[in-house]
Design goal:
This protein has 168 residues and is mainly alpha-helical. The chain is 55% helix and 2% strand. A two-stranded antiparallel sheet has the order 1-2. The longest helix has 26 residues. The radius of gyration is 16 Å and the shape is elongated.
């Protein structure tokens, strides 16, 4: 089954503030899905750059690095900066040298900070906006949470592809 490519996808924005709890639940659940997918797998699979693209560990680490940007973006939206910080496209280091649990913990520590920041938002802050730099669309904190949950799903699907291909 052919999947949609991330950079060509479009998203519905302008989500109601009452949808934030649902997005936060999705964001919180990502770590459990990562752990489920990687449990008991050998490092050769988790560190393998299938098709010269990111490995399982690198996909997980990327989400951790993206969460560092997302934390800034939440505040940029709340402070109504005209444009949010740019996305992360490369990796800061070689995460394949790390044990998988360390990579997951790296992600999870950043994710917990984001969830905590979202939970501090007042109702009136949920309608504040800033422009996403790549998409060129106005987003609220709820839209950002939705977008980041979709981004998680994109990378979790890729992780599943890598694992199913290499386990054959």
């Amino acid at each position: 089954m052919k999947k949609s490519e991330w950079l060509t996808r479009t998203f519905p924005f302008g989500l109601a503030g009452g949808l934030l709890p649902f997005q936060l639940d999705r964001l919180e659940g990502t770590v459990a899905r990562m752990e489920m997918k990687t449990k008991g797998l050998p490092d050769e699979i988790l560190s393998n750059k299938l098709d010269m693209k990111w490995s399982v560990k690198e996909n997980i680490a990327h989400l951790g690095e993206v969460d560092e940007v997302a934390l800034k973006r939440i505040d940029e939206i709340v402070n109504q900066l005209p444009v949010m910080s740019p996305a992360v496209f490369g990796l800061k280091q070689d995460y394949n040298a790390w044990p998988v649990q360390k990579v997951i913990d790296f992600f999870y520590e950043r994710r917990k900070m984001n969830i905590a920041r979202y939970r501090l938002l007042a109702d009136d802050e949920l309608s504040r906006t800033s422009v996403h730099p790549r998409l060129k669309v106005t987003m609220t904190p709820v839209d950002l949470a939705f977008f980041d949950a979709e981004h998680d799903d994109h990378h979790l699907v890729r992780i599943s592809e890598i694992i199913s291909t290499l386990k054959k």
